[in-house]
Amino acid sequence: MGFIIALIIIIVIILISYGLLYYLGRKQTKINSELDEKKQDIMAIPVADKLYTIRNKNVSGNTQRVFEAEQAKWQTIKQYKLPEIEAALVQAQADTDKFSLIKARQTAEKTETLIEETFKEVTAINQVLQEILDSEHENEEYYQKTYQAYAEIRKQLLAHGYAYEDSQEVLKKNLSYIELDFTKYNAMMNDGDFMGAHEILDQTNEDIMTLQAMMKEIPNLYEKIENVYMEQLEDIRSGYAQLEEMAFQFPVDVHVPDEIKQVEKNIDRAREAVREADLTEAKQLLTATEVQIDRTYEFMQVELDAKDYIEKNQGSLQQRLSQIKQSNRYGSLEIDRVSQSYMLHENELGRMQDFADRLDRLSDKLESVNQRLGAHAIAYSDMEKVYKTTYEDLASIEKAQSHIVSTLVELKQKEKEARSTLYAFHLDIRNMKRRVGHYHLPGLSDEYLDKFFATEDLVDDFERKMNRVKLDMVEIDQMIQQLSDQMEDLDQETETLIDHALLT
Fold first, then answer.
1. Would the pTM count as exceeding 0.85?
2. Which of 159, 227, 242, 439 lies at a C-alpha separation of 20 to 30 Å from 212?
3. Which 3 state secondary structure label does DSSP give 100?
4. What is the pLDDT of residues 395-445, one digit of tens each?
5. Cβ–Cβ < 8 Å for 49, 75
6. Ordered alpha helix ranges (H), 45-100
7. Which of 178, 239, 252 minimizes the C-alpha distance to 209?
């Protein structure tokens, strides 16, 4: 009984295995069939027909080179890759029939990759061949469009040649080059070089667009040269001539005639560049001309502005100088007067003399530039610099002089405050002496008494110095600070003594 069951199980397993192999075999056969259909799709691409058609057109030049390259690719595929695909498909089906399914699947996978690569290559070849076939018809449409654009600009040049002045010859020469390109195009088309002819049309179309842009810009450039830059040049010439009549001078590093010559040179070169239809060069030159014109205008405007400045400030600067000289004399007299009553430590009189010397030098300098102006030997802008520097120097001197004078004025106030302080010190000493006496404090310490009498002596010394004929306010300020500290210290000790006494 057990043997029968085992036999049945074996038979069932065999049947299942056979059924599985049959199923997988059928599946692989289907895959092989699909791959064969893909191969047929490759064969269905009409590369051979297109090669035959193009070959009969007797192509040449670039078209022939492209055609031969694609034909060589097709021959390689036809002789090697397609037979290789066919052999692989046969092998895959043979392996499938022998139930070598793993081997069949591996062969099918490699074949599928090869088919996909070959399909892409054949599709690319077909696309290039189609472009060759289409180029003949497309070129005709492209030619008509390009020739129409050429005809329009030729008509415009012939009808409105006056607008292009001396540039007409160059523009006509460019038109003749375009006509030669059309001749080359027709020759290539007749020879069957459709792709080369298309390239000629591309270049011709680009040349036409360039010529259109040139014909649009040239009249504008001529108009700009004549009505803008030439007018500005004449304006500069006229302006400089007027300045010369008025005996204007310029700084040594400014040469207006050279600037004007450079403007003329740039305009002439720009006009020549436009005549040669070199518009890039022409625009660069006109930009340089504009900069040069602005620079020349600025040189002349600087002198005109400087003249206005000199006329407005010539009298006021001299007046300002006289005022500060007068202030210097007053300051020197004030120093002499104050020095009779006070000790001075900052060499005030010497500094005022230095200021007086500087003022004399500034006066001489102004006199010199004014004389040179009268003799037309100095530029207004150079003179303006002298004026502005002189204003700055005068402001510096005036500020220093005012500081010295204000310091002298403060001495009298300081003396008054010092005398009030001396009176306050005397009053504080008497008050402390009276308070200590009021409480009849016995046994005052020697230390306290020494400090009290030393402070009292210092107050007396302070009074003697305040009674001198010539006061040294620096020394007095120091004594006031010293006495203030000592008086504060003594006052605190006195308060402490009184507090102790009250506690006792």
1. no
2. 227
3. coil
4. 999 898 888 888 887 778 887 887 888 788 788 788 887 877 665 556 667
5. no
6. 47-56, 61-76, 82-97
7. 178
